[in-house]
Every structure is written in C-alpha cells, then in structure tokens.
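Students often ask why inverse folding is considered easier than folding. One informal answer: many sequences map to the same fold, so there is more than one right answer. In these notes we will look at a single instance of the problem. The structure comes first.
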C-alpha cells in the first residue's frame, strides 16, 4: 500500500516538474522569438524599403556620354544600393505585350532611356528620398524621376507601428511569463508544504529549508531555458533559409545576446519565484496549511 502511494507521489512530482519546465519553455520561446524580431527590425525594414524601386528617365536629347556619366554618379553615390541601365529598346521589348508592334504605328520608339535603381534602406525616408529626387532632377540630362511616394510613406509608418506594438507585446508577455512561471513553481512547492513546516518545527533555519528548493527551481529554469534556446536556434536557421537576405547568423552577436538573455531570464525568474513561494509557506501558521 505504501509502495503504491510512493509511486503515486513520484508520478505527481514528475508531472509537477514537467508542467514547470513546459511553462518555462513556452513563455521563453515566445519571448525570445519577439526579441529576435525586435533586434532584426532594422534588417526587415531595410529589406522592405530597399525593394521600393526608383526610375530616372533621360531626356530624348540626352547624349550617351551624359548617361554614362550619370551611371558613374550612381556608382559612387552612398545612398544607391543597386542600379541597372534600361535602354529604350530594352524597355520596348519588356513592354511588348502592352505596346504591340509600335513600329507600324509610330515613326520612333516613344519610350525613354532610363536607370532603374534601389536606394539603401536608411535613405528611403520622406525627406531623404525627396532630397535625392531633387539632386537627380538638377542634372540637365534627366527628364523625370518616378517612385511610389505613397508606398514609401506607408512602409515607414507601418514599420514604426509594428515595432511599437511588438515592444508592447514583448513587455506584456514578459509580465505574463513571470506570472505563469511563478504560478507553476508555487504549485510545485505547494505539494511540499508539510515537509517545509516539519523541517521548520524541528529547528531548521529558513535559509537551510529554502536552499534546496531554490536550487531545484534554478535547475528547472536551466532545462526550460535550454529547450527554448534550442527551439530559437532552429527558428533562426529556418528564417535564414527562408529569407537569406536577412543574414541573421552573419551578425550573430545580437542573436547571441537574445539567447543569453533567455537563459538569464529563465534562471533569474525561477530563482526569485521559488524564493518567494518557499518564503510564503515558511511564514504560514500550521493551521493555515490545511
């Protein structure tokens, strides 16, 4: 009979530990994922902005040397990510479905020579891109400069909103994670409340009673944190394969800081929660245990 009871208690204890580790793993994985998103916000926003095209059209009378000189200007410009020269013949070929056989209807190609280019993310801002447009238009060979101004404004506004809400959600999740982990640990220690009170009654000091519970909480925190770090490393590798342009592992230091933060948070929160949970039962009167 005693053996069956001991087995029941052991299964109950293992189940309690499993629930604690699972809670730690889930909340730290979510928190770490949000942390990775926050530190890579600049890369993500840069990727979005750098895919907004700008086209510089030349006047019909613009000479080849003027267009070559403009290409050299783009090459040496700190705000240009990439560019490609598009002749009016190439443009006509690309738009053949729209233009049809224009040679039978028109005397000459109506399209203009141009450069298609993408700016670096830092310069795709309302004021910066306007200054670049003015600079391009000041060139006497340039006839027009076009880009989606509305898309630029929407990209910047939405990125700021998303970053703000991610930070808010991260703060809320951090608070909720502390409550969940604290609750799981308190339930785990609750099953030992009689042992705690018995040790206290035979003369054991509070620090002596707390020590093994705190160490056990730290071990559970380490296990949950290690599992969360493993899941986050897999997540980062997945993102690098799905979106190689982000190159998250190329700049590995911020990622390592997030992973170290997950480990530290897991250890600290379990240690603090276990300390206060144990202290609560140490301060209870014997009658209140029932």
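Output (designed amino acids):
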């Amino acid at each position: 009979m005693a053996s069956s009871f001991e087995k029941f208690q052991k299964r109950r204890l293992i189940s309690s530990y499993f629930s604690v580790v699972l809670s730690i793993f889930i909340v730290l994985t979510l928190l770490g994922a949000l942390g990775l998103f926050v530190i890579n916000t600049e890369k993500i926003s840069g990727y979005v902005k750098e895919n907004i095209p700008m086209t510089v059209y030349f006047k019909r009378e613009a000479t080849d040397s003027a267009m070559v000189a403009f290409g050299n200007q783009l090459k040496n410009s700190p705000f240009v990510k990439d560019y490609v020269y598009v002749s009016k013949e190439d443009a006509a070929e690309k738009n053949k479905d729209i233009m049809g056989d224009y040679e039978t209807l028109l005397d000459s190609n109506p399209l203009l020579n141009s450069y298609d280019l993408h700016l670096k993310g830092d310069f795709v801002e309302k004021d910066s891109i306007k200054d670049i447009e003015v600079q391009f238009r000041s060139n006497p060979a340039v006839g027009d400069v076009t880009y989606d101004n509305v898309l630029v404004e929407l990209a910047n506004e939405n990125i700021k909103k998303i970053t703000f809400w991610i930070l808010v959600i991260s703060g809320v999740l951090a608070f909720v994670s502390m409550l969940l982990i604290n609750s799981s640990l308190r339930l785990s220690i609750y099953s030992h409340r009689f042992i705690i009170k018995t040790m206290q009654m035979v003369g054991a000091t509070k620090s002596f009673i707390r020590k093994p519970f705190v160490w056990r909480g730290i071990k559970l925190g380490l296990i949950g944190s290690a599992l969360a770090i493993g899941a986050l490393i897999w997540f980062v590798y997945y993102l690098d394969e799905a979106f190689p342009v982000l190159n998250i592992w190329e700049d590995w230091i911020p990622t390592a800081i997030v992973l170290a933060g997950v480990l530290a948070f897991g250890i600290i929160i379990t240690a603090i929660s276990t300390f206060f949970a144990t202290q609560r039962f140490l301060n209870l009167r014997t009658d209140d245990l029932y």
